[in-house]
Amino acid sequence: MTANIIDGKAAAERLRQQVGLEVSRLVTEYQLQPGLAVVLVGDDPASQVYVRNKGRQTVAAGMLSLEHKLDVAVPENELLALVDRLNNDPAVHGILVQLPLPGHIDEQRVLQAIDPAKDVDGFHPANVGRLATGDPAAMAPCTPMGCTLMLREQFDGALCGQNALVIGRSNIVGKPMAQLLLRESCTVTIAHSRTRDLPALCRQADIVVAATGRPEMVRGDWIKPGAVVIDVGINRIRFEGEEKARLVGDVAFDEVVEVAGATTPVPGGVGPMTIACLLRNTVVAACLQRGVSCGLV
Ligand SMILES: Nc1nc(=O)c2c([nH]1)NC[C@@H]1CN(c3ccc(C(=O)N[C@@H](CCC(=O)O)C(=O)O)cc3)C=[N+]21
């Protein structure tokens, strides 16, 4: 058996289509054009690519895109002052400060300075708490939300009772992923670098979400036949004799595809869905701020 390869690009395009329709309705009915501000500190080439893609897709969905590029040496208080201006700018409904930030800046401090109502990343402790307490109004982080949407599609909405293993315990992916799967009534296990006998644990899972940051760590013989495997990893690897770096996930795709029921490729899996969910969150945030109902929730 070979796995169904989940087309994240196509799923993202469908979601962006819905977002675009909702944006035109908001513009027509309420003169409300959702706006997203993205703040990038430093000039990491990969981050620049993501920020450019986000900006392009925001505009394509009919939304306002604002980009702020700050020098890598920007003092923390200047970044905090910018966040404050964006918090108070009525044209801005969503704020994303691209992570990671340079070492001299206190990341948590910056994330906590963002108005929770504009926190489209869902990283503010208020939104983390809302997600953890099962508040349906919680702004959920984009990457785990994209994974959840793809999983729902694979299981025809019936995630209830599935054994889900999340590998990775980061605040950005692992922990919120576990919360979202719990909300779907999965039986959730979180594994991490100190987990004992990860392969054996993995073989019990109907759903595996790999967010380890270790290229091709999850092997084919870890996977229960028919399981659905979501690969969150994005590792840029240079292979010998090749000029360009290649994108590799946290899953050994060629092995897993022989065993799994379905799996996501890298690229073209989780990444595109992450950006589509960011647009979605921005529209939802704009509706909440204006006090109008949103067709996307
Ligand atoms: N505050 C914050 N929020 C984020 O959501 C955030 C962040 N910081 N920092 C960096 C990571 C990374 N991230 C990606 C989004 C899309 C792709 C994506 O579309 N990837 C394409 C490939 C792109 C390529 O070729 O490099 C794909 O997987 O098909 C990748 C990575 C969001 N992040």
Label the overall shape: globular
Write the CATH architecture name of the domain at 142-270: 3-Layer(aba) Sandwich
Assigned CATH class of the domain at 142-270: Alpha Beta
Along the chain, the helix and strand elements come as: EHEHEHEHHHEHEHEEEEHEH
Pathway: One-carbon metabolism; tetrahydrofolate interconversion
Subunit structure: Homodimer.
Protein name: Bifunctional protein FolD
Family: Belongs to the tetrahydrofolate dehydrogenase/cyclohydrolase family.
Describe the structure in your own words:
The chain has 297 residues and is an alpha/beta fold. It has a domain at 142-270: 3-Layer(aba) Sandwich (Rossmann fold). The chain is 40% helix and 15% strand. The protein is built from 10 helices and 11 strands. It has helices spanning 8-30, 45-60, 76-87, 107-113, 125-132, 142-154, 174-183, 198-202, 253-256, 270-290, and strands spanning 4-5, 35-41, 64-70, 94-97, 163-167, 187-191, 207-210, 228-231, 235-237, 246-248, 262-263. The strands form 3 sheets. A 6-stranded parallel beta sheet has the order 1-11-8-7-5-6. A 3-stranded parallel beta sheet has the order 3-2-4, with helices on both faces. Strands 9-10 form a two-stranded antiparallel sheet. α7 (174-183) links the parallel β5 and β6 (187-191). α1 packs parallel to α10 and α6 (142-154) packs across α7 (174-183). The protein is globular and about 50 Å long. The relative contact order is 0.18. The model has no long low-confidence stretch (mean pLDDT 97). The structure holds 5,10-Methenyltetrahydrofolate (GUE). 5,10-Methenyltetrahydrofolate (GUE) binds at residues 49-50, 53, 96-99, 121, 142, 234, 247, 266-268, 271-272, 274-275.
